[in-house]
Structure formats: C-alpha cells, structure tokens
Amino acid sequence: MIKKKSYQVGVMLRWLVGPICQMHRLLRTTASRGCIRQRHRLLSAVAGGDQPIRDLPPTTCAVPWNRLLCAHICRSRPDLALALYRRMRALCPALPNTYTLPLALRAATSPRIASAIHAHALHLSLHAHPDVAGQLLAAYARHGRPDEARHVFDAMPSKRTTMSWNTLISAYSVCCDPDSAMATFGRMAAAADEALPDAVTWTTLLSAHARCGKHPVVLELFGDMHRSGCEGNAESVAVALSACPYAGDLALGKGRAIHGYGVAKGVVRGYLFVTNSLVCMYGKLGKMDDARKVFGEAGEKNTVTWNALVTSYAASGMCDEALDVLVRMEQRGGMAAPNVVSWSAVIGGFASSGDNERALELFRRMQRRWLSPNVVTLATVLSACAELLAVRLGREVHAGAIRSMLDRHSLVANGLINMYAKCGRVAYARTVFDGMKSRDLVSWNSMLASYGMHGLCDDALAVFADMAEAKVDPDGVTFVAVLSACSHAGRVSEGRRLFDQMILEHRISPSMEHYTCMVDLLGRAGLLKDASELIETMPVGADLCVWGALLNSCRIHGDAAMAEATIAKVLQAGAETTGNHTLITNLYAACGMWDESKRVRVMTREAGLRKSPGQSWIEVKNKVFAFVAGSVPPSMPGAEEIFRVLDDLYSEMDDERHTMEHDHHIVSV
DNA sequence: ATAGGGTTAG
C-alpha cells in the first residue's frame, strides 16, 4: 500500500516537474513578448493536476501549449506530449490549431491515437490544412496503415509533392506490401508533371523490398535508380549493401562493386550506416578479414557497428569470437553498450551452431543484466528450448512473454507452438495457436507439423481444411507436414489425393522431401511396388532419404527380394554415407543374410565411415540429460534407482507378453 | 511551433 502510494507520487512528480521546468524557462525567455497572463493560466492548468478541470480558467492562446508539446517531442517523451494534448483538449477544446495537431500526431504512438487526432481535425475543420494533412499521412504511414494513409493522400487539397508521394510509399513499405509500393511508384511516375521521384523515393522503394526479403529486386531497383539518372546516396547504398549477401554466387562480386560505388560517391568514410552495412555484408559472406578491416577503419562506432561485428562472427560460425566482442562491448562501457540485438545475435549464433545449452545459458546471463528480450530473442530461445526438450524453461519463457504482452506476436507464438509440440504438449500448442490474433503461413505449418509428429492425422487434416477456409495458400512445407501425418497414420488414399492436389491445384512441384513422404506412406502400408514405381517416375534421381524410406519399408515388411533390388540400385547410384550403410547392414541382418551383412560392415569400416551414435534426451528439473542406448549419464542423480525401477518394469512387461501370447497366440515380431 | 528514406539479431 505504502509502496503503491509513493509510486503514484513519483509518477505525478515526473509528470509535473518536466513541464513546470520548461514552463518557467518559457516564462523567462518570452516574458517580454506579452501574454503573461495567459502563460500564468497555462502554468496553473499544467500544475493543477488535482483541481477539477472545469474550475481552471480557459486559455485563448495555443502558442505556449505548442511550444511545450514540441519540447516533449524533442526530448522523446511522446507520453508527456500526449498527456499535455489531452489536457489542452479538456480545458479548451477549440484551441488546437494547425501547429498543435501536427505536433500531437508526431507524438501518436499507435494508429488508434492517430485516428483519434484525425477525428479532432475533422471536428475542428482543420483536416484539409496542408500541414495537418501532411502529418496525418505521415502518422498513418509510420504505423503501417496504408489504407488510411491513402485516404488522406487522395483527399489532400493541394498539389501532391514528392514528399507526400514518398510518405505514401513508405506506408506500404512499413506494412510489408512491396507490390503496392511499386504500384504507387508507378502512379507517381505517370504523374510526372506533379512530382518527380527523388533519392528518397528510390530508397523507400528499395527498403520496401529489402524489409520483406525480396533482395534480388532491391539490387535490380538499385540499378534502375542509377540508370534513371538518380545518384545513389548513402541511404540507398546502405540498403543495397544489405541485400547483397542473398545474391547467390554473385553476392561477393555485387557487394564489392557497390562498396566501390559507395567509395566513388564519397559515402563510405564518415557514413556510419554504410560502414555498418559493409561490416555486415562481408561478415554474412564469411569474409571476416574484410569485415574486420572496415570495422577497424571506421572512426566513429555505435552499437550497431559493434553488433554488425558480433553478427559477422556468429554468421561465420565463430560463436566464441562473437561472445568475445560482446564482452568487450560490456567492458568498454560508454555509448556502445550491448543491447538486445547484441545478445540475441550471440544466443542465435550458439543455437544455430547446435550448442543450445550454451544459448540458453547466455539467455540467463542476459536476463541477469536486466535486459528485456524482444520477439526475436524469444523466438530464438524457444527454438533452443524445443531442440533440448526444455519444456520448463519454455513455459517460463511463455510466462515472460505473456507478461510483456509479446505472446500473441506471430514470431513468438510460432516458436511456442513448435516448442510445446516438440516437448510433447500438443494441447498447449493448440491453445497458443487458437489464441493468436493473426496466423501466418508458419503458424499453420507449425500446427500441422505438431499434429503430424504426434500421429494425430485427423487433427492435422482438420487444420489443413481450416487453413483453406482461412484462405491461406499452402506451400511445400505444408504438404510435407500433412503427407507425413498421413504416412504415420497409414492413410494411403488421403495421402495420394493430397500429393496430386499439391501438384495440380497448387502448382507446387514435389521436392525430395515430398517424395520421401510418399515413398514412406506407400511403403509403410506395404505397397512396396507402388513406392518403387514412384521413385522411377521422379524427374531427378532419388537421394538417400528416399531410398532409405523404401529400405525401411522393406525391413518392416520383410521383403528380402525388393530389399536386395533396392540395395543394388543404391550401391549403383554410388551412395556412400554411414546412415545408409548401417541401414543396409541391419537390413541384411533382418533378412537373415548374415554374410552380406558382414560384408557391408567391413566395407563401411574400410571406407572410414563411422556412425555417430543416436542420442536421446530427458529433461529433469530444468536440466537436460543426453544418453545413448546402453549407457548411463554420469551426472544423472539417482541413476541406480531408475534402473531398478526399469528392471521391474521390464520383467512385468515380459510376464504380460507371455500371458498375451498364451491367450491370443500372438507371435511377437 | 511543423514533414518523407537508411545499418545490426530470427
């Protein structure tokens, strides 16, 4: 109770002191210009938080209000600016003018607030004023509301300027709609008498494509920009560089070319954004020497520059070096302290290198620094939890996500679905899925895969139907999920129908994974001939997974002839991996062909191939124990006890089986 | 007292 009260006092003080200090300064600096009485009234209005609003005298001049609004915005306190604007409206509803509304709009932190101010503008008949309309457009654009932005844009009374076109295009960029951005750019070019595209227009267009992964288009547009006679500037060079790593074989060549272009245009040295892009570009392409060189030559560095170096090391698989840089950032202190991005990069680096334990350890360390994770951090951590089956930490992360209201974000929710599914909690996965406000393709695919991996084919098919109902177009991943669900449940006709549907209706050409699913589906059901025929129809040669699926089916159904024929084909195709050799060995053994089995085993050993043993994990009290068949994890507490219970269970199972065999004449396989 | 574009983490 006491704590709450003092908290409230603190909030009030902060609320009041800021404006009052500024008000005093205002009174001092502008006293000679008159309006003293009004300023006194305003001061009492701002300070009189406890007085009933209607008892305060109304002011008639908007200037001091506007000055104060501007001061709050310049100090990055949109909350205080908005509170002041509300107070202004409450005290004197007619006072906001063509300066006030743009200022309030700059402080709008959500599209809802922008809409409310829009309504005020309409009510005050100020919506058509160029400044108000311009800032309305900007506010809607910032929040990625292209429909509202378009509405304002179309209603703008004055001649459209390059700037208003640019703002409209940025609305499409923010909400990841590059096609509409492009279409708008086309309309702008068609209305060339009105306004001509400038460097900002091109940069906006570039970023519209960059931000949603259309990197090849970015590089094309960068060329178009140059060809259209528009000089590349620092901003556009930065975006173009960020797209280079995804250009395939030409990536490094393009990167170096644009680097050179930037040097020629004089936008490399002293332009931090370009420096940062360069470090990251070289790092992503594994050119650590170049990345380090650019980093070293940069005079001024900020957090992003350091993060680019961290990212570069992480992307090159040098996780320990990435961590070293982060530690160096911490020790240096000052302006470039590590932030969420730095930590997420290192955590992600360890996670993608397979060291999920280390990733989670670092997440704990980040929490100890009182840094709040964001959606990217949470997605990364949840994926590590899923890999380690660390459901307790996963639930803890879920709880944290709920507290910070990030749990319904698609990145986090998709991570949660995957984590719960992998940890065997399909029902939780479904709850998260149902609670999402908007589901993307990954959400649907994750849910499908969840049911698939638990053998719940009917549920998977129901989700697939819902997906069609929700008008979400399936992709290749979707079909891998449904086909494998069918395969595990032995739903042959359903699977065949889906495979055809995928090719004919959705125009998705089947990948190796799809063929593997189908061969598995047919093979497991005993349709070995059909499976083998499907392999024959494949446009490209089957890979080891496909052959493996067929061999596995031969083993299940004890078809030695088919197995031998298959093995001949595999060996003929020159397939040489341990996995398959082991499979072949086991297969011969299963068919009773011991000599052949031994022969392959010897061959394997001579080829220097050794299979690393498959591992399993179990999570006990937030700690994950890995074990292989026949071994005891040394750190496992109470291992002896566990094995005693296991022994008891085994003997009970044995008794049970003998009884069953006796009663039902079931012969165990 | 007022406007649009840029780099880093999945």
Automatic annotation (TrEMBL):
<dbReference type="InterPro" id="IPR046848">
    <property type="entry name" value="E_motif"/>
</dbReference>
<feature type="repeat" description="PPR">
    <location>
        <begin position="198"/>
        <end position="232"/>
    </location>
</feature>
<dbReference type="InterPro" id="IPR011990">
    <property type="entry name" value="TPR-like_helical_dom_sf"/>
</dbReference>
<keyword id="KW-0809">Transit peptide</keyword>
<dbReference type="GO" id="GO:0003723">
    <property type="term" value="F:RNA binding"/>
</dbReference>
<protein>
    <recommendedName>
        <fullName>Pentatricopeptide repeat-containing protein</fullName>
    </recommendedName>
</protein>
<feature type="repeat" description="PPR">
    <location>
        <begin position="475"/>
        <end position="510"/>
    </location>
</feature>
<dbReference type="Pfam" id="PF01535">
    <property type="entry name" value="PPR"/>
</dbReference>
<dbReference type="Pfam" id="PF20431">
    <property type="entry name" value="E_motif"/>
</dbReference>
<dbReference type="GO" id="GO:0009451">
    <property type="term" value="P:RNA modification"/>
</dbReference>
<dbReference type="Pfam" id="PF13041">
    <property type="entry name" value="PPR_2"/>
</dbReference>
<keyword id="KW-0677">Repeat</keyword>
<feature type="repeat" description="PPR">
    <location>
        <begin position="302"/>
        <end position="336"/>
    </location>
</feature>
<dbReference type="InterPro" id="IPR046960">
    <property type="entry name" value="PPR_At4g14850-like_plant"/>
</dbReference>
<dbReference type="InterPro" id="IPR002885">
    <property type="entry name" value="PPR_rpt"/>
</dbReference>
<feature type="repeat" description="PPR">
    <location>
        <begin position="339"/>
        <end position="373"/>
    </location>
</feature>
<feature type="repeat" description="PPR">
    <location>
        <begin position="440"/>
        <end position="474"/>
    </location>
</feature>
